[in-house]
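To the wet lab folks,

You asked to see what we're planning to order before we commit. Fair enough. Below is the target structure as tokens, and below that is the sequence we designed to fit it. If anything looks off to you, flag it before the synthesis order goes out.
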């Protein structure tokens, strides 16, 4: 039976990407060696790293003055590193979900934090206090897509201070106006590649303005100066990330990806709204195109486990809702084909007919 992987991350990768990765595990670029055993200083991997950085630049139209880094430590280390490198006095944090709250907790170690939150409503809406943001803030940090709760802010906030974005779960789904940002980061394991690499896009001139001493590995300048090769980078995840980005280029780039992901999200939300058995969990205007969260409608609550079993037995994998939300979460990252979403929609219709 064909399986459709709706996992929130690590998550689905395109078959062509997995095949390229598998082939490089056996023979990397005709070296006769596996990608798993080559030196990161060898000319082949130096070229791979450079191509990965360039391809990201090209796909996202990253302007001059910004650096692309691939680091270790996950997006979670960025929660600390961002504040350590950029927070002088005061920063604004949009507390729109679990990950945003974790980022904010780290920032409080380094300075004053002004918080705008939807926590009291279990994060079912996205805070948008754009005209209340203090102008003297060093930056405003927001999590553009809330992987756990399924809300998203699909624009670059219009505020008078600089922006920092955690785009772990929606990078490569829209064009970004970089001129507003000092930094964008994310874990690779959703829309780019397997777990193990973290991307950071940072404005060079935003660095070097804090007074505190910075540990070498946590100072972005260390990695900028060494073209992301200060220490051993996550070689294999970066190779796979490059395969994904090359595939994105073949598909036609970010505009095309945006169109496809909008169509897929519409397909599923339309069915959730139409089908009497289900309902969405967040405010309609803030619905995520990446992580679609839904539960059984109140009158059909008792069917939760039955639907989960029904779908799982038919090849839908990893689509249980986060424990704080319940129900179901279907993650529609770029590698999820439209047929996968249609298949899930058809199962929802079939389940409705039998109840
Ligand atoms: N931010 C967001 C939006 C996430 O979804 C996640 C992981 N699911 C993280 C940060 C943390 O990423 P990591 O596990 O790479 O530290």
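Sequence we intend to order:
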């Amino acid at each position: 039976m064909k399986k459709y992987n709706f996992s929130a991350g690590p998550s689905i990768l395109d078959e062509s990407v997995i095949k390229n990765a598998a082939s490089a595990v056996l023979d990397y670029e005709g070296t006769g060696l596996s990608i798993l055993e080559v030196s990161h200083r060898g000319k082949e991997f130096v070229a791979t790293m450079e191509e990965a950085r360039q391809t990201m630049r090209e796909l996202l139209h990253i302007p001059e003055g910004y650096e692309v880094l691939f680091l270790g430590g996950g997006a979670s280390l960025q929660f600390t590193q961002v504040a350590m490198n950029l927070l002088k006095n005061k920063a604004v944090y949009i507390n729109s979900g679990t990950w945003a709250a974790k980022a904010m907790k780290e920032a409080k170690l380094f300075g004053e934090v002004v918080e705008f939150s939807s926590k009291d409503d279990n994060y079912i809406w996205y805070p948008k206090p754009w005209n209340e943001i203090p102008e003297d803030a060093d930056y405003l940090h927001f999590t553009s897509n809330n992987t756990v709760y399924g809300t998203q802010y699909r624009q670059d906030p219009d505020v008078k201070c600089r922006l920092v974005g955690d785009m772990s779960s929606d990078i490569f789904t829209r064009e970004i106006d970089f001129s507003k940002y000092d930094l964008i980061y994310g874990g690779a394991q959703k829309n780019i590649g397997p777990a193990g690499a973290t991307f950071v896009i940072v404005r060079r001139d935003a660095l070097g303005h804090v007074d505190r001493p910075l540990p070498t590995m946590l100072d972005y300048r260390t990695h900028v100066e060494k073209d992301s090769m200060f220490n051993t980078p996550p070689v294999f995840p970066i190779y796979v990330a490059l395969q994904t980005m090359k595939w994105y280029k073949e598909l036609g780039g970010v505009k095309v990806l945006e169109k496809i992901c909008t169509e897929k999200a519409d397909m599923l939300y339309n069915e959730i709204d139409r089908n009497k058995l289900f309902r969405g969990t967040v405010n309609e205007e803030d619905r995520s195109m990446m992580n679609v969260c839904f539960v059984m409608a109140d009158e059909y609550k008792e069917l939760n486990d039955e639907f989960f079993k029904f779908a799982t037995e038919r090849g839908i994998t990893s689509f249980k809702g986060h424990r704080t939300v319940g129900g179901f979460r279907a993650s529609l990252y770029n590698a999820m084909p439209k047929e996968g979403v249609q298949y899930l929609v058809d199962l929802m219709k079939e389940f409705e007919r039998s109840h």
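Structural context that might help your review: The chain has nine helices and 14 strands. Residues 9, 74-76, 99, 143, 147, 166, 168-169, 187 surround 4'-deoxy-4'-aminopyridoxal-5'-phosphate (CB under 6 Å).

Thanks,
Computational group
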